[in-house]
Amino acid sequence: PAPSLPSGDLRGVRVLVTAGGTREPFDPVRFVGNRSSGRQGIAIAADAAARGAAVTLVTANVDAGLTEGLDVDVRPVGSALELADEVRAAAAEADVVVMTAAVADYRPAEVHAEKLKKDAQGDTLTLELVRNPDVLAELVANRRTGQIIVGFAAETEPDRAARIELGRAKIARKPADLLVVNHVGWSSGFEREENAIEVLTPGGEVVRETSGTKAEVAAAVLDLVATALA
Ligand code: CTP
Ligand code: CA
């Protein structure tokens, strides 16, 4: 389908988007990470800019080629702690925050100054992980009046009703304005162009359900954001 014409419905709105997946280092060359490519967040940032928004895009380990030429302020980060710092600073200036990034829930308790050597480890290696701050929960707790906050929940649950229940529990815990539930699996959702979503309100209502390209999903989410701002 042809991309919709820029509507200008976000003109002058300051939008902060996070994209990609954080990497949690445990030595200078190794990390614990996830498979998020950043494409869905980039699609949201690009569409917001096309609608007239001033966009800040915090990218966690996103291929720089994917954001080249976009009319957005790109701020690359690596770990969840770095993402948290960048988002805390930028959120103070944002009318809308869309947390698309896959933020690691845990990071290695210890970051070794030198490469771990297997001779010193033996046949098994145990990494102790500690909890990262929940950035979305912080944003919701510190939300300014009128600020719109959107969370994304990647869920592997294949059953739609069960997936929506997981989303309801999540938005009840962290009452963002909208929660986009995104079905992911070994071969869906990540590193691909197609995405399937259900969008929930804090009350647990499904206000939008669609599947399509990440650009189509971005447009659907920003339609809801524009409505919420109006
Ligand atoms: N998120 C965050 N900070 C974290 C973890 C998650 O800001 N430390 C945000 C994500 O960017 C996303 C939302 O919270 O917008 C939901 O993330 P998700 O991993 O689906 O939910 P969790 O609350 O972490 O629950 P769980 O992973 O146990 O399902
Ligand atoms: Ca998580």
UniProtKB/TrEMBL annotation:
Occurrences of domain DNA/pantothenate metabolism flavoprotein C-terminal (ranges): 10-227
Keyword Protein biosynthesis belongs to the record: no
Positions that bind CTP: D105, K115, P133, D134, V135, L136, F152, K170, K174
Keyword annotations of the record: Decarboxylase, Flavoprotein, FMN, Ligase, Lyase, Magnesium, Metal-binding, Multifunctional enzyme
Full-protein positions shown: 193 to 422 of 422
Region Phosphopantothenate--cysteine ligase: start-end pairs: 15-230
UniProt function note: Catalyzes two sequential steps in the biosynthesis of coenzyme A. In the first step cysteine is conjugated to 4'-phosphopantothenate to form 4-phosphopantothenoylcysteine. In the second step the latter compound is decarboxylated to form 4'-phosphopantotheine. Catalyzes two steps in the biosynthesis of coenzyme A. In the first step cysteine is conjugated to 4'-phosphopantothenate to form 4-phosphopantothenoylcysteine, in the latter compound is decarboxylated to form 4'-phosphopantotheine.
Pathway: Cofactor biosynthesis; coenzyme A biosynthesis; CoA from (R)-pantothenate: step 3/5; Cofactor biosynthesis; coenzyme A biosynthesis; CoA from (R)-pantothenate: step 2/5
Cofactor comment: Binds 1 FMN per subunit.
Annotated GO MF terms: phosphopantothenate--cysteine ligase activity; phosphopantothenoylcysteine decarboxylase activity
Family to which this protein belongs: In the N-terminal section; belongs to the HFCD (homo-oligomeric flavin containing Cys decarboxylase) superfamily. In the C-terminal section; belongs to the PPC synthetase family.
Chemical reaction(s) catalysed: (R)-4'-phosphopantothenate + L-cysteine + CTP = N-[(R)-4-phosphopantothenoyl]-L-cysteine + CMP + diphosphate + H(+); N-[(R)-4-phosphopantothenoyl]-L-cysteine + H(+) = (R)-4'-phosphopantetheine + CO2
Annotated protein name in UniProt: Coenzyme A biosynthesis bifunctional protein CoaBC
Cofactor(s) listed: Mg(2+); FMN
